[in-house]
C-alpha cells in the first residue's frame, strides 16, 4: 500500500480535489448538452430522412449514429462517476487532515512536540521517567511510552489517509475503463464504497467457491475489509452482494481457516474479524436490519451445507460474530438476534445438542457445544448497558427473559445413547452438560448487574436483575446446586453488592428488613432506593443458599469472603471514631455476616467428608484466593481500612510460607477464616491504629464479646437456611 508522509497530509491542498470534482460536474453537464445537440442535429434528421438501402448501408449507418449517441450518454455516466469518487476522496482526506491538525494541538497540550515531519519528542521530559521497566528493562520507560503513544496515534491517521488515497486511485482507474476502442465507461460506480464493496464481494465469492486467491488478491482483500469494516454504506453493499446464504458459507470457510495453520491464517483472521464488524455496522440501519434478520430466520435453523454435517445457520453466524468488536455492536443486532434465536429454538427443541453413543457404564467426557443463544449472551455482556436493558424484568416484571434463561430454558447438552456391545441401541439416553454450558449467561449476568464500574451505586434495573437472580435460582435446603460455569460470575456479582449482602446477612438494617419480600417477613418487593442508587433486599435464606451453591468453587468463595472483609474494614474506618463504641455497629454486623460465611464454608467442607483430599484441596485453594483476591469490588476504601486488610492478608500469607502441601494450607484456612478470629484481628488492628492497647483494652474486649454473640446468631440463621 502506498504511504502518506506526515507533512504531506498536514499541508495537503484538499481544495484542489473539490475543484476537480466541480470541474467534472461541469464536464457532465457539457456532455449532456452535446448529447442533446447530437440528438437534435444528427439523430433526428437522420431518422426523418427515411434512408434505406438494399446493401444494408443504411442499417450500418443507423447503428453508427446510435453508437455515437450512446457515447455521449456514457460520457455523462463516466464524468459523474469520476466526480463521485473525487468528492468521496475530498471528504475523507479533509477529515484526516483535520484529525492530524487536532492531534498536533492535543499533543502540545500534553507536553509533546511534533515536528514538521512528524517526529515526536517531549517538550520537558520527566527526569524520573527515563528508567526502563520490567524484567531486564525490556519494557519502555514512562517517557518512551508517552512518545510511542503519540507516534501510534499519528500512524493510525496516516494509515487511514493512505487507504483513502489508494481507494480513490483504484476507483478512478476502474471508472475510466479501458478507453480506446471501448469508448466511455457506462459501468462506473457512484462512490468509493460501491467500488470497494463490489471488489471485496467479488474476491470473497471467489474464495468461497474454493478458488485460490493470489497473494496480491489476498492482500487487496485484507486491505479492503480492514479499511471498511466500520463503514455503513460499504457494509450494507457488501452483505447485499454476498447474500445471506453466501455470507454464512463464507463465515464457515473462514472459521475453518482459523482452526487451521495455513501460511495466510493471520490475513484470513483479519478478514473474519472485519466481516463480523461489517454485519454489526450494517445492522445499525433499521430497514436493512429488519430485512437481514428476516432472511436469517429462514436460514438460522437450516444446515449451512448439503451433507447434514455442517452447523446450523445461527451457529455459524454467532461463531462469526464472536470474532468482531463486540462492545461496539448495536443493540438492535444483539438483542434482536438473540430473541430471534430463542424463538427458533422454542419451535425446534434440542436443535443445538451434540450426540454420541456409548456402552453402559462407559465414561463419556463432556464436550463443548455451539450454543448460539449463549454465544449472543456473551457478546452482549461486552455492552453492560444493553445487557441490563435486555435482562431487566421491569417494574411490572413483564420482561421474562431472565426467568427463561435461568429456569425454563432446556440448555443444549451432549445426548448419549446407550448401546450394546453389538452397537444396538438399548433405548437408554443420558444427558451430560456441555463443558461450556452457560458461559455466556454468566458473563451477561455479571455485566447486567454490575455495569461499567465496580461496586455501588447500582441502577434500579441492575438491582432488579440481581434480586430476581437470587430469587429465581433458589433451591430446597441441602440442594444448593449452581452450574460450575456460573459460580465465579455470580460470586463477582454478589461481591459487587457487598454493601447489600452485608446488611442482609446482619439482619438488623431497617430498610433491608422492611423492604424484603413478604415471605421474608417484610412488606416490600425486595428492592428500594431510587433509579440511580438502588438496593436489592431479597429473601435472606435464598441469598445464603445461593452463596452456598457458589462456594463449591473455592475461588468464587474467596471472592465473596474477601469482599465482605474489605467492606467490614471500610465500615469501621468510615465511622471516623476513636472509641470502641464508635465501631460497635459495624463490628457486630461484621460478626453476624461472617458467621454466615462460617456456616457456608463448613457446609461445603462437611459435604466433602467422604473425601479428605477433596476437603484439603478446597480449603487450600480457598485460603489462597482469599489472600490473593484484589479488593476492586468495594470502592472507596481508605488508607486505614487498607492497612487493616493488608495486615490480615499478610498474616495469612505469612502462615502459608512455612507449608508446602494442601494439608498444611488447609490448617491455615481452618484458623484464619474462622470469623471470630478474623474479626478479632480486624478489631485489634483498628485499635492499634488509634493508639489503643487492642485486646488488653476493656472496651475492646467488650466489643469482641458483642461480636461473638452476633457471630453465633448469623451462623445459626445461615445453618437454618441451608438445612444444617
Largest sheet: 3 strands, mixed
DSSP strand tally: 7
| Rg (C-alpha, Å) | 34 Å
The overall average pLDDT, rounded, is: 85
What is the straight-line distance between the termini?
Answer: 71 Å
| Domain module tally | 3
Number of helices: 28
Helix content: 55-70%
Low-confidence parts lasting 5 or more residues at pLDDT below 50? none
Gross geometry: elongated
Strand content: under 5%
**Structural class of the helices, strands and pairings?**
mainly alpha
Spatial strand order of the main sheet:
3-4-5
Folded structure, characterized:
The protein is built from 28 helices and seven strands. It has 724 residues and is mainly α. It folds into three domains: 160 residues; 263 residues, no CATH class; 182 residues, no CATH class. The strands form three sheets. Strands 3-4-5 form a three-stranded mixed beta sheet, with no helix packed on it. A hairpin with a 5-residue loop joins β1 and β2. α5 crosses α8 and α10 packs parallel to α12. The chain starts with 5 loop residues before the first helix and ends with a helix. The mean pLDDT is 85.
Mind sketching the topology for me?
Blueprint lengths: L5 H5 L4 H35 L7 H53 L2 E3 L5 E3 L19 H34 L16 H17 L6 H14 L3 H11 L1 H16 L5 H18 L3 H14 L13 H9 L9 H17 L6 E6 L12 H9 L3 H8 L9 H8 L4 E7 L5 E9 L5 H12 L9 H13 L11 H13 L1 H9 L3 H5 L12 E4 L2 E4 L3 H11 L3 H21 L9 H24 L4 H17 L10 H19 L4 H11 L2 H14 L9 H24 L3
Parallel strand pairs: 3-4
Antiparallel strand pairs: 1-2, 4-5, 6-7
